[in-house]
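Please review this one.

:::
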Amino acid sequence: MSGCWKMIRTNGIPRGRHETSFVECLGKFYLIGGREADGLIECFDPAMKTWSQMKATSPLIHHYQPLVYDKKIYMVGAMTGFYPDEPPMDSIQIYDPVEDLWKIGGSIPEERRRGGSGAVLYNGKIYIAGGITSGHTSGTNGWFDSYNPETDSWEKLADAPHIRDHFHGVVVGHKLYCIGGRNGSFHDPDFESFFAAVINEIDVYDFETSTWSILPPVSSLPVGSAEGGVATLNGKILYFGGENATEALELCWEFDPETEKWSELPPLNQGRHGTQAISYSNKVWVACGSPLRGGSARECGNVSSMEVYSR
């Protein structure tokens, strides 16, 4: 194992939140959304290690993977509302950090609306994979769509091999990797059985050939979890944290797309799920999340800390 995760001290701390997004834009990091956010958008300056609150606020938005396009943060495949029947949002949400303004983007086709999806940017288009149509109740799918922000147009693409929600996608080269997540529609023998219905298989979409494939079993995620952090570092993929049937995990793994093999890395200092990761300045940064399995209530204390992985 190489490298390590370190807790870092910051000037100020963010609002503890989970099912949030954590994204870099123009050299600053933004926490947007999450169940306990109360609309607060918070900004971290990695040079000054300082947290600040933006003037703009967000609607109730959670369970989505943000991406940056044209110096703005786009949010597609998101949920709103309250557990367990959180409906999907009907329009793309956009935050402009330069103007500090929240904007409503184009409408999402009604028959393709869902939350808990993986979303990535490739060659100027937004690609959305998987998700669930009705919060934590039903409608887990393997849908795959593209959205062109320039023309405000959608295209329905071939489904992914596995249905999954509560995951994040990542692009390396000309391939999209769908890693982790679960079947949030699984409720047998009881409603919360979905926590154990994790997806270890990795689906890969090749943008050059427009085809899906499944990596061989030996390349599956070593320990399944949902809502883990995903980031790239030096051409490899880090996957860490997440939740399974019993707990929020601190495990960290590195995947080599060339060899299609996993290596175990030193763990997080704090088990957490429901947040995301930022690759910046040859490091991986993570903030907030839930320290417990499931939707942590305010009184259980979501994580406000930040960790950084470096070699």
The mean pLDDT is 96. The chain is about 0% helix and 45% strand. The CA atoms of residues 234 and 282 lie 8 Å apart. The two ends are 10 Å apart (CA to CA).
